[in-house]
Design brief:
Blueprint: E1 7-9, H1 10-22, H2 27-38, E2 40-42, E3 57-62, E4 67-74, E5 84-86, H3 90-95, E6 103-107, E7 113-122, H4 124-130
Length: 131
């Protein structure tokens, strides 16, 4: 599996760690935990604007199908029907901490692997929190 360098904010690290502690362990959640273990953790104010974070709107391509998607990366609590992608989903776990232009191979259910490429990241909500 391709494991590019990832960077996440300490805010996201703590939030995801707390969520993982409260959930029953599954293979998918163990993969997310492993991503946290290898992440470069920085203060929220120091997170570059091109890095995928919770509450950022992310555009990406599934390279095997060339299908493009745009979602807001969210925790499991918000309503997902409003264009949200849960951090606990396989794709949400795969893209956290990636930067624009990075690609990752990620195992999905049924033994298949997808290759995801980040094409755009927008941090409108984070900019409001830091203002």
């Amino acid at each position: 599996m391709n494991n590019p360098e990832i960077t996440i904010s300490s805010y996201d690290f703590d939030l995801i760690s707390d969520l993982l502690d409260k959930m029953k362990s599954t293979e998918e959640l163990e993969k997310l935990s492993a991503e946290l273990d290898r992440a470069n953790v920085v203060a929220l104010k120091d997170l570059p604007g091109n890095i995928v974070a919770i509450n950022s709107t992310v555009s990406f391509i599934i390279e095997t199908t060339q299908k493009a998607f745009t979602y807001k990366l969210v925790t499991p609590k918000p309503k997902l029907e409003d264009g949200g992608l849960s951090i606990m989903s396989p794709i949400g776990s795969a893209i956290i901490g990636l930067s624009e232009g990075q690609t990752i191979e990620w195992p999905m259910s049924k033994g298949e692997t997808v290759t995801v490429k980040i094409t755009n990241v927008n941090h409108a909500e984070r900019a409001q929190k830091l203002a």
